[in-house]
Amino acid sequence: TVSSDSTVKNWNSLTGRLRYTLRGHEGPVLACAISPDGKWLISAGSDATARIWDSASGNLVTTTRLDGAVISCAWAAAESLIVLTTRTSMEAYRLNGGPVQGLTLRL
Questions:
Q1: pTM value?
Q2: Which residues of 19-56 are buried (b: 16+ CB within 10 A; e: fewer)?
Q3: How does pLDDT run along the chain (107 residues), one tens digit per residue?
């Protein structure tokens, strides 16, 4: 779950108990998504960052900065591809790299 207190909470779906709390955003977290294989979690923040976390350990893997609050995030069919949106753009990124050329849409 995401929160206005700058955290993301990961819950055990079987027990309903909190597994861990992710900290690092510098403002409310607006969205999160888990990769299709369950290995990664991405969080989208009002601090203009998207952060990718290892879902097993809760360790931060990487941070990407955009030009405004990241209001949504999603994993594409290919697990290594994520889509991030701000109020003015939609961008696709590879998990192990920067922006995917040709896949940035300015609104």
A1: 0.86
A2: eeebebbeeebbbbbebeeeebbbbbbbbbbbbbbebe
A3: 999 999 999 999 899 999 999 999 999 999 999 998 888 899 999 999 999 999 999 999 889 899 999 999 999 876 678 899 999 988 888 776 555 554 655 55
